[in-house]
Amino acid sequence: QKEVEQNSGPLSVPEGAIASLNCTYSDRGSQSFFWYRQYSGKSPELIMFIYSNGDKEDGRFTAQLNKASQYVSLLIRDSQPSDSATYLCAVVDIGGSGGSNYKLTFGKGTLLTVNP
Amino acid sequence: EPEVTQTPSHQVTQMGQEVILRCVPISNHLYFYWYRQILGQKVEFLVSFYNNEISEKSEIFDDQFSVERPDGSNFTLKIRSTKLEDSAMYFCAVRTGSRHYGYTFGSGTRLTVV
Fold it and tell me: Which among B102, B72, B53, B45 has a CA at the least distance from the CA of A100?
């Protein structure tokens, strides 16, 4: 059973601070990793994807991947109250049928609260 | 403007009734998925669909569930005889190509079985 683990939180940070969200995964063969943001009652919204070791920056967001440690993280700089949401880590699972599938396995998500 | 529209946004149905959830992708997507999320739990994979057939299905996707893309546009999930435990948010997701570039989720349908 392939697992994706996240600290459920809640993680509370003051406005303007850096929020750090972490995720570990069990399948060493995993290749692609995604961070989704989900507001309450809404659908997941893709923030970033990463598939190479190291850092990837996009605006206020930085994804970090360490395949040796099976660890992926998301940093949010200058956190805003509008960033308050649940952040979902997801890993691509090739699946039993091979190349046409690539389904996502999600963690439970970390609830982030940014306090004004 | 959402790239993937789902209808209805909310459906209440009685236990044992059939429901059909619809997904209307706007762009020319190749790969289609259904996921569900029970309140307070993780997003779970149900089924993947490519080239007009099921690629993979999870243990959740039993004989009560079916999917089809009847007109080359709408992608539907049918639950033949709903149970209380089918109450959840159901999300359609689409992917155009490379597995590296993520999946776009639809707006979701909240299904409540009473």
Answer: B53
